[in-house]
Amino acid sequence: MIRMGGTILAALLGLAFGSFLNVCLSRWPEGESVVHPRSHCRHCSHTLAWWENVPLVSWLALRGRCHSCRAWIGWRYPLVELAVGVLWAQQAWGYLSEQSLDLLIFNLHSPERLVFLIGWAIFPWVLTALAVLDAENLWLPDWLTLPGIALGLVCTILRNRRQMELSALSPPPLAPGALYCLYGIFAAAALILLIRWVYWLIRHREGIGLGDAKLMALLAAWLGLPQALLAFGLGVVLGALAAVVLLVVPSARRESETWALSKLPLGTFLCIGGIVSSLWGGHILAAYLRWAGF
Q1: CA-to-CA distance for 214 and 145, rounded, in angstroms?
Q2: pLDDT tens by residue, 197-221
């Protein structure tokens, strides 16, 4: 009962924060405030009533169109809300399966555990934001990636410390865990920088932005180097599939003004790979090691 209720609450909160994220995604690239003015139609500036601003439900009720001017709102709005809601619900379901009510209340009163839980709620929210920003604007802002790396480092240290405390009597030192995590962060970023340098040597032009290196560092900070590399592999495969589709679909080739024909948003595919890796990365890597005979 507690597990189901907590999961439903997390899903509803995810929908609400996904709705707020849509406001940010529309206004950040334009340099606008996310607080003022109130939510409005981007076409006719109609201020939304409360019933037009209910996450997911309003979009479905209005059939994806503005109530005032009937302009198409777009699929991004319900997809972002649904993505954050589902990811938060999944995390709550997994976390509550391992916690009794007494232990859960104790953890929420522990500053370290509270930081850890809040951090792991922010992580999928940030990945969703970066995926959309790169897809729509080819933009991975430093003020999202760099704080994300720092928060991921803190949360990973807290998680490793907790795991070591469960298997040892004395509290473990922080330094070894922090250094190991830092090695993974630098190695993940170095992989992108190496590919960028090789591409420059061959083509004499920039092929991968520095934002992708920071994004890989962010994934390594949260997931560890092995799962970050898995996210990279998944992202590359998804990007290659997208490129093949654009080559073989005539209608896609005719739209010469779209971003896809000039540059593919690698960051978007890395974020998708990061989400998959965070959910099932351990099982995927374990299955691969068994298949490889390790």
Answers
A1: 6
A2: 998 999 888 888 899 999 999 999 9
Q: Which residue has tokens 């970050």?
A: 228
Q: Of 242, 239, 235, whose CA–CA distance to 273 is shortest?
A: 235
Q: How far apart are CA 132 and CA 29, in angstroms?
A: 11
Question: Is the bond into 176 cis (omega within 30 degrees of 0)?
Answer: no
If we measure between CA atoms, which residue out of 86, 73, 83 comes closest to residue 41?
Answer: 73
Q: Say whether pTM exceeds 0.70.
A: yes
Closest CA to 131 of 276, 31, 229, 265: 265
Q: Say which range, 34-48, 115-129, 163-177, 213-227, has the weakest mean pLDDT.
A: 163-177
Mean pLDDT of the region 167-178: 57
* Contacts of 172 by beta carbon, 8 Å cutoff, 6+ apart: 161, 164, 165
**Three-state SS across 88-118?**
HHHHHHHHHCCCCHHHHHHHHHCHHHHHHHH
* pLDDT given at position 222: 96
Provide the token pair at 71: 């302009």
E-strand spans in 156-226?
none
The CA dihedral of 11, 17, 19, 23, to the nearest 10 degrees, is -170
Residues 209-264: tens digit of each pLDDT? 899 999 999 999 999 999 999 999 999 999 999 888 877 876 655 554 454 445 78
Name residues whose C-beta falls within 8 Å of residue 153's C-beta, 6 or more positions apart in sequence: 178, 181, 182, 185, 221
Alpha carbon distance 30, 32 (integer Å): 5
